[in-house]
Design goal:
The complex is a heterodimer. Chain A is an alpha/beta fold. Chain A has 9 helices and 9 strands. Classes of the chains: A alpha/beta, B mainly alpha. The interface between A and B is medium-sized, with 32 and 28 residues.
């Protein structure tokens, strides 16, 4: 896809002057009291300050910044887990988040049962899950373990299953945290290939990373945030230049 | 209110599935499985019957109904109410990963845990009803009132859960508070004795405002005493009044605190 074409694509993620503040409670008592009364004196941490950008369908956008810059908060807002305090966020389409792969799994149930459990949690119908089931199992490479309870799985196996469910559920938007490690090196590279393939098939990708190499390989556009503020949004090469200047 | 209804839109099948899975999860790995849902309450029933009838020699008939039946028809709704309150408090905190890790319609957590308790109740209820048929108390036209009392109980304690589960998110103290209150509520709500026979007038009036008493007495009217709920309209009005308050307060708390939940859990 060429750049001109993308500009005609519909906007799928839009942030307008988005801010997010976390309250830092000093004690359990303080948190309990905040149920009834939110004191002005509570310490707050501004995780995002007035962030605005638009992502169009089919774009692969990297998010870079140091630890605590606000990357995770930004992703959590896109996935709808947390909510902004100010500004407007619009997300159009089904989001699959490769952040918390094993969230929602039950240890006592088998891999197959967990596919259904997770499917229902994500809002799919039984028919839709049946349709995905084979693809998920095949991709996860669990073999006969698929009918064993999850508590017998190694952590890598659970992650593989979680990853497989997320990427095989036909999402419109894929949110990826690069720090994520799924199984061994071979499976990891299979995952990266899958992400690349999805990106080339027109799935919108948001890719968070610390390593510039990984982002550059996948994304032509990069958003750079520092201490909650958007510093740069544009071509990958330039973004990395700005980043290395600012962060030294 | 709209907020909560919207979260449930198109999610009814999921709620049912998740409720069933919730029960499976609760009992999975044990040999007797879901039979425990019946064995536990049955043991309690026998225990109370033994203590009162044989130990304390207090097991007299209550308005022509054997103490055992009186106890049983009171305990069955009580177990449901207890599960709804205790489970209601845990509904969100116990499923924290649904709030902090994925985008999930949070109020349906309350609904599916409540439905899972309803399924367990249906099982206990069936056992109770079979016994009532054998004992010659059922079937009767009055039994149809179950379709009045049970939905009311379900809605009441579901709505109560909107408040207590969101509060429990902010402070685990609430869960401990509720567990310690449960024993008191149990002994004070007329599950073990007949609230209509109270001699103390102010206490009798006070119990009008106890929704647990209303439901437990309702079950006894439905299955033992052949009374219609409209024969005592005052207690119905008081209950409905409290119900409206509980719903309004629950919606208020849920909408107010929904967006902060992920940040404090």
């Amino acid at each position: 896809m060429t750049h001109e074409k993308r500009e005609d694509s519909p906007v799928v993620i839009s942030f307008k002057n988005v801010s997010k503040e976390y309250i830092l409670y000093k004690s359990d008592q303080e948190r309990f009291l905040s149920l009834f009364y939110k004191s002005k004196k509570l310490r707050r941490h501004q995780a995002l300050k007035d962030v605005s950008f638009e992502i169009r369908k089919g774009e692969a956008v990297g998010i870079i910044g140091r630890n605590g810059a606000g990357k995770s908060t930004l992703l959590k807002i896109v996935t709808g887990v947390t909510f902004p305090d100010g500004g407007e966020v619009t997300v159009n389409g089904k989001v699959a988040a490769l952040l918390e792969l094993t969230a929602g799994f039950s240890q006592e149930m088998t891999g197959r049962e967990n596919i259904y459990l997770k499917g229902y949690i994500l809002g799919y119908s039984k028919e839709e899950i049946e349709e995905m089931e084979d693809r998920i199992i095949q991709f996860a490479e669990l073999g006969e373990y698929i009918d064993q309870p999850l508590r017998t799985y190694s952590s890598g196996m659970s992650m593989r299953l979680g990853f497989s469910i997320n990427v095989n559920s036909n999402p419109d938007i894929l949110v990826v945290d690069e720090a994520l490690s799924v199984g061994d090196a071979r499976f990891q590279s299979k995952c990266n290939d899958k992400i690349n393939q999805m990106a080339s098939e027109g799935v919108t990708v948001m890719f968070v990373s610390h390593s510039m190499g990984g982002v550059k390989a996948l994304c032509e556009r990069i958003i750079y945030i520092k201490q909650g503020e958007l510093v740069f949004d544009g071509a990958a090469d330039e973004a990395i230049k700005v980043y290395s200047e600012k962060e030294g | 209110m709209l907020n909560i209804i919207n979260e449930h839109k198109g999610f009814s099948r999921q709620i049912w599935k998740l409720a069933v899975l919730e029960i499976q999860r609760r009992f999975k790995g044990s040999f007797l499985g879901s039979a425990w849902a019946v064995i536990g309450p049955f043991t309690t029933l026998l225990l109370f019957w033994f203590v009162f009838t044989i130990g304390l020699r207090q097991g007299n008939e209550i308005h022509g109904v054997s103490f055992f039946l009186f106890l049983m028809v009171g305990l069955v709704p009580w177990f449901f109410i207890r599960d709804m309150i205790v489970g209601g408090a845990r509904a969100i905190r116990g499923n924290a990963q649904f709030v902090t890790k994925i985008n999930f319609p949070v109020s349906t957590l309350n609904t599916f845990t409540a439905v899972s308790h309803l399924i367990v109740h249906a099982l206990l209820f069936a056992c109770m009803y079979v016994y009532l048929i054998i004992a010659g108390y059922a079937p009767s036209i009055y039994n149809l009132q179950i379709f009045f009392y049970l939905p009311l109980a379900f809605i009441f304690f579901l709505a109560l859960g909107w408040t207590i589960s969101t509060w429990a998110v902010f402070s685990p103290d609430l869960q401990s508070l509720i567990s310690s209150l449960m024993t008191a509520i149990f002994w004070l709500s007329g599950v073990l004795w007949n609230s209509y026979d109270l001699q103390v007038v102010w206490l009798k009036k006070l119990l009008l405002f106890n929704p647990v008493t209303f439901i437990v007495n309702g079950y006894r009217k439905t299955f033992l005493y052949n009374e219609w709920f409209w024969e005592n309209p005052l207690e119905v009005y008081v209950f409905l009044g409290i119900l409206v308050i509980v719903i309004a307060f629950g919606v208020f708390n849920y909408t107010r605190l929904r967006k902060d939940m992920a940040d404090v859990l």
